[in-house]
């Protein structure tokens, strides 16, 4: 043992600065030496490795609040954990249906794991500031892990609610589209209706468990009643497009979701087709046969389809009755139209087609029969050209009708009256013969038809005079002009007997260029023999 050690029985780990051969210790009246303090305290020795302590620090760092670093008194790292968690909260809140971007979540989890691993490594040989034991720290870490776990649960709940609100907003937007279509024609509102329907479908298909999806069935009821509203207002023609569209809805939204709504438009559409078709037929509007055709094709077994043939029959009866009224020609046109249009109506069952065809035949026959009344009415109204054409049509189309002979008389009288209106003041009759002889000759190289009317109406045709010529335009006005007086010519002629009175004659050449009818008015009296001469003249240049 050295001298220094003998003089200091407790030892001096720092040495004696005054010992040695070249130093003299200062005087010390108390007899002991105070060693100087070191400039900085030495670091504490590392604690023994403790796995539980490392686990506790790691668990506390997993809370995202850097509590593990707080127990190790590493304040900077703790604040860094706070900043990272704060950034996450700024990104995540308020909760959004889309949630936090996956890159942010992954990055945050990576940082949590790194903080936990680093904290565990640092806590392996570092004593905790508090609590002093590892098990309480582990328990605290497990308890505090409930905070982020609960936050995740709360965030998911908030996100679900945000999603619900978003879906309810979509539902409300679809509802507004439906309400916007109220009172509008379907064609202008159709785009909005279709967009709303897609929204309803997507809610049911993509989010079946949502509150918005649960409201869709009630919304569909409103949807149907809104689109089909014209039916309830008895606007049957206006209801057809919307009701037709509603029948296509099951292709977008299944019948299971629609329930009874899937069949809701059918009877309403059938009724609308019938009522609209009947209205169109009553007013002679175009397109009514197409509407009835849609009814017969789309709902052949419906009560409405069964009413089509009787409705046409009722219209035929009404028009046939009108033939005897003040507008027989309009009634005939109506019957003709009914017959033609109904004849082309097809598409129902065989029985319906047959019933409709039967009514179409009735309409055509009634129209043919009504032509006579139309011709008489035209004659009375002074429309002689139309009367002649109408009566000739009746004669040609009604071979066995008892009025055919008189219709021919009307046609002849109308021919004469078209040139001599006075001839149309009296209606022709079936009377024939008379006491006065009238010989009609043809001094023309062309066949000539002679029409006459008055007390007796009739017509005859004289063949061409082979030796006759056409007179010049001025020749009949010359003094001494006497046609049919050349004894060397053989004039085609016929003699008829007419009663006393005024008879109107009309000569019409059946050949020749530029010919025009010629008329003659003869007042026949007893005691005379009359000759009526037909001849033709030519204009200059012909």
3D structure, described in words:
It is a single chain. This protein is of the alpha/beta class and 542 residues long. The protein has four domains: 94 residues; 79 residues, no CATH class; 106 residues, no CATH class; 108 residues, Immunoglobulin-like, CATH 2.60.40. Helices cover 54% and strands 9% of the residues. It has 20 helices and nine strands. The strands form three sheets. Strands 3-2-6-7 form a four-stranded antiparallel beta sheet, covered by helices on one side. Strands 5-1-8 form a three-stranded mixed beta sheet, with no helix packed on it. The longest helix is centred in the first third of the chain and has 35 residues. The radius of gyration is 59 Å and the shape is rod-shaped. The N and C termini lie far apart (175 Å). The N terminus is likely disordered.
Brief account:
54% of the residues lie in helices and 9% in strands. By secondary structure, the protein is of the alpha/beta class.
């Amino acid at each position: 043992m050295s001298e220094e050690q003998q003089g200091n029985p407790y030892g001096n780990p720092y040495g004696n600065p005054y010992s040695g051969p070249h130093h003299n210790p200062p005087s010390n009246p108390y007899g002991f030496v105070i060693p100087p303090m070191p400039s900085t305290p030495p670091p504490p020795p590392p604690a023994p490795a403790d796995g539980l302590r490392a686990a506790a620090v790691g668990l506390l760092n997993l809370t995202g609040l850097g509590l593990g670093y707080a127990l190790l008194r590493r304040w900077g790292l703790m604040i860094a954990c706070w900043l990272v968690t704060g950034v996450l909260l700024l990104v995540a809140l308020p909760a959004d249906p889309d949630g936090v971007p996956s890159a942010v979540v992954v990055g945050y989890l990576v940082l949590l794991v790194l903080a936990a691993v680093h904290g565990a490594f640092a806590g392996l040989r570092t004593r905790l500031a508090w609590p002093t034991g590892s098990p309480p720290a582990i328990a605290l870490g497990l308890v505090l892990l409930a905070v982020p776990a609960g936050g995740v649960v709360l965030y998911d709940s908030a996100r679900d609610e945000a999603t619900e609100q978003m879906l309810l907003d979509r539902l409300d937007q679809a509802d507004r589209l439906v309400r916007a279509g109220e009172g509008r024609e379907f064609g202008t509102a159709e785009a909005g209706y279709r967009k709303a329907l897609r929204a309803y479908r997507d809610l049911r298909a993509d989010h079946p468990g949502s509150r918005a999806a649960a409201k869709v069935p009630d919304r569909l009821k409103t949807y149907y009643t809104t689109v089909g509203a014209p039916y309830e207002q008895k606007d049957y023609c206006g209801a057809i497009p919307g009701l037709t569209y509603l029948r296509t809805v099951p292709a977008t939204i299944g019948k299971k979701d629609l329930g009874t709504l899937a069949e809701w438009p059918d009877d309403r559409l059938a009724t609308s087709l019938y009522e609209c078709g009947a209205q169109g037929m009553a007013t002679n509007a175009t397109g009514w046969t197409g509407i009835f055709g849609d009814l017969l094709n789309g709902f052949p077994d419906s009560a409405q389809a069964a009413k089509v043939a009787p409705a046409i029959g009722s219209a035929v009866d009404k028009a046939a009755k009108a033939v005897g009224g003040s507008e027989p020609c309009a009634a005939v046109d109506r019957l003709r139209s009914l017959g033609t249009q109904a004849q082309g109506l097809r598409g129902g069952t065989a029985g319906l087609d047959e019933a409709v065809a039967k009514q179409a035949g009735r309409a055509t026959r009634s129209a043919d029969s009504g032509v006579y009344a139309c011709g008489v009415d035209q004659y009375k109204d002074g429309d002689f050209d139309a009367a002649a054409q109408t009566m000739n049509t009746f004669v040609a189309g009604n071979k066995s009708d008892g009025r055919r002979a008189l219709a021919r008389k009307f046609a002849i009288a109308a021919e004469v009256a078209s040139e001599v209106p006075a001839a149309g003041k009296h209606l022709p009759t079936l009377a024939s013969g008379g006491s006065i002889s009238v010989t009609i000759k043809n001094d023309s190289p062309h066949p000539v038809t002679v029409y006459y009317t008055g007390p007796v109406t009739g017509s005859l045709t004289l063949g061409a005079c082979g030796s006759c010529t056409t007179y010049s335009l001025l020749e009949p006005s010359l003094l001494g002009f006497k046609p049919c007086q050349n004894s060397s010519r053989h004039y085609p002629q016929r003699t008829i007997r007419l009663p006393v009175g005024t008879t109107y004659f009309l000569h019409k050449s059946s050949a020749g260029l530029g010919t025009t009818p010629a008329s003659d008015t003869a007042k026949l009296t007893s005691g005379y023999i009359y000759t009526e001469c037909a001849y033709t003249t030519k204009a200059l240049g012909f």
